Amino acid sequence: MWKSNRNVTMSYTTIPTPNAQDPPNKLDDTTSYQPLTSSKIRIINGIDTARGTDTSIWDWRGKGWLTIATTHWEVLGYGDISEDAGGPGQWLVTYFAATRFTSAGISVYSRKKEGNPDAVVRDILQVLGGIENEAVSKLVGEIFEVLRN
After folding, report:
1. Is the separation of the CB atoms in 91 and 109 below 8 Å?
2. Which residues neighbour 110 within 8 Å (Cβ) at sequence distance 6 or greater?
3. Which among 3, 69, 65, 55 has a CA at the least distance from the CA of 26?
4. d(CA 8, CA 99)
5. What is the pLDDT of residues 82-92, one digit of tens each?
6. Which of 5, 6, 23, 136 has its CA 20 to 30 A from that of 36?
7. Quick one: three-class SS letters along 69-131?
8. Closest by alpha carbon to 79, among 140, 16, 22, 123?
9. DSSP helix/strand/coil, 4
């Protein structure tokens, strides 16, 4: 889906639980993007629900007319290497299952608008490439950079 779009941003806000002492297990999810050939900003809204108490495994369901759309996603890794120490800042790697609209894939995210430094992406891809799983290896080979401008 992202090959024909640019300036993709994803924002997550925790949804409070009925019992304030319970950890949040739902996220309000907003994704915005622009088609490559348009200045119009499009928005996808959904709700992510953690699978049990494991907040590295999530199920997403769209809001509005997208309530028919669901997917499953998992956090494969994350890091926070202080920018003060010359590091890239925060990064995240996720796996997402196929939907009616998209193929399965692996995404590498950055908190910074300019993305992750090339060296960080190379290191992440090297680690992912070392996972002895045919499906993961195939998806790693399909990772591409989304245009930002």
Report:
1. yes
2. 88, 89, 90, 91, 116
3. 55
4. 18
5. 665 556 678 89
6. 136
7. CEEEEEEEEEEEECHHHCCCEEEEEEEECCCCCCCCEEEEEECCCCCCCHHHHHHHHHHHHCC
8. 123
9. helix
Say how far apart CA 36 and CA 54 lie, in whole Å.
36
pLDDT of residue 75: 95
In whole angstroms, give the CA distance from residue 92 to residue 108.
6
Residue 15 gets which letter from DSSP? P
Token pair, residue 108, equals 């590498």
pLDDT digits (tens, 9 = 90+) for 34-43: 999 999 999 9
CB contact set of 42 (below 8 Å; sequence gap of 6+)? 5, 32, 33, 34, 35
DSSP class of residue 2 equals G
| Count of Cβ atoms closer than 10 Å to residue 84 Cβ | 7
3-state SS, one letter per residue, for 30-72:
EEEEEECCCCCCEEEEEEEEEECCEEEEEEEEECHHHHHCEEE
CA 90, CA 81: separation in Å to the nearest integer?
6
Residues 6+ apart with CB under 8 A from 62: 44, 45, 46, 68, 69, 70
pTM of the predicted protein model: 0.85
Backbone angles phi, psi at 19, to 5 degrees: -100, 110
